[in-house]
C-alpha cells in the first residue's frame, strides 16, 4: 500500500477507539517497552500525544522513565522550517498546545539532538522492514537524521505491521524497534 492509503486507513481505525480503549492499549505498549534493551541509556525523547488524533497515550511511558530516573526530552515544532527544538522536561516545564493541538514546552533547557540516546517515535503505521508512516510533514525524519547513528528509534503503534509500505523515500529514517500492545518488532 502507498502512504496516502495507509494514512487514510489508520486515521479511520484510530477514530473508532474509545478513551478507555486508548488507555488500555497504551498501558500494554508501555509494559512491552520493558522488554527492550534500552534501560541503561539516560536521555530519552518522547512525544506528548495529540489527544484529538487518538494517539498513543505516553503518560505511562513518562511514569516509567521518571521512575527509572531518566532524563526526559520533549519537543517544540516550527511549522515554517519543519525543525524541532528539544527541551528537558522538568517539574517547572510549562506545556501549552500549539495551533495543531500538539502539547509543547513553552521554553526550558534546550538539549541538542546528538545528546538523545532513545527516541519514541509517533506513527500511524509501519511495515515489517521498520519503515513508518506519520502525518507526512517530515518533522521526525528531519529530527532523526540529526541524531547520532546509534540513537535507538522506537515506534509506538496501536496496530501490527503492514506487509510493505510501497513509496519509501531516501530521507525516510527506519525504526530500530516498533512496540505494539501485542509484541515487539526488531528491525
From TrEMBL:
Record-level GO BP terms: folic acid-containing compound biosynthetic process; tetrahydrofolate interconversion
Q: What Gene3D superfamilies does this protein's entry cite?
A: NagB/RpiA/CoA transferase-like
The EC number of this protein is: 6.3.3.2
Q: Which InterPro entries match?
A: FTHF_cligase (IPR002698), FTHF_cligase-like_sf (IPR024185), NagB/RpiA_transferase-like (IPR037171)
UniProt keyword terms in alphabetical order:
ATP-binding, Ligase, Magnesium, Metal-binding, Nucleotide-binding
**Which branch of life, at top level?**
Bacteria
UniProt-annotated binding residues for ATP = 3-7, 132-140
Name the cofactor(s).
Mg(2+)
Q: Which GO MF terms does the UniProt record name?
A: 5-formyltetrahydrofolate cyclo-ligase activity; ATP binding; metal ion binding
Listed binding positions for substrate are 50, 55
Report the sequence similarity comment from the record: Belongs to the 5-formyltetrahydrofolate cyclo-ligase family.
**What NCBIfam families does the annotation carry?**
MTHFS_bact
Q: What is this protein called?
A: 5-formyltetrahydrofolate cyclo-ligase
Give the source lineage, highest ranks first. Bacteria, Pseudomonadati, Bacteroidota, Flavobacteriia, Flavobacteriales
Amino acid at each position: 500500500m502507498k502512504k496516502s492509503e495507509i494514512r487514510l486507513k489508520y486515521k479511520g481505525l484510530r477514530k473508532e477507539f474509545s478513551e478507555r480503549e486508548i488507555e488500555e492499549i497504551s498501558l500494554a505498549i508501555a509494559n512491552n517497552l520493558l522488554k527492550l534493551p534500552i534501560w541503561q541509556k539516560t536521555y530519552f525523547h518522547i512525544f506528548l500525544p495529540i489527544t484529538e488524533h487518538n494517539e498513543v497515550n505516553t503518560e505511562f511511558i513518562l511514569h516509567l522513565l521518571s521512575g527509572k530516573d531518566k532524563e526526559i526530552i520533549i519537543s517544540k515544532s516550527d511549522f515554517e522550517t519543519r525543525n524541532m527544538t528539544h527541551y528537558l522536561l522538568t517539574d517547572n516545564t510549562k506545556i501549552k498546545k500549539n495551533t495543531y493541538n500538539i502539547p509543547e514546552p513553552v521554553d526550558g533547557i534546550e538539549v541538542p539532538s546528538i545528546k538523545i540516546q532513545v527516541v519514541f517515535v509517533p506513527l500511524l503505521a509501519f511495515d515489517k522492514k521498520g519503515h513508518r508512516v506519520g502525518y507526512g510533514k517530515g518533522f521526525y525524519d528531519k529530527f532523526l537524521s540529526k541524531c547520532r547513528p546509534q540513537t535507538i528509534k522506537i515506534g509506538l503503534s496501536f496496530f501490527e505491521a503492514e506487509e510493505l509500505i510501497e513509496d519509501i523515500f531516501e530521507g525516510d529514517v527506519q525504526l530500530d524497534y516498533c512496540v505494539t500492545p501485542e509484541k515487539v518488532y526488531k528491525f
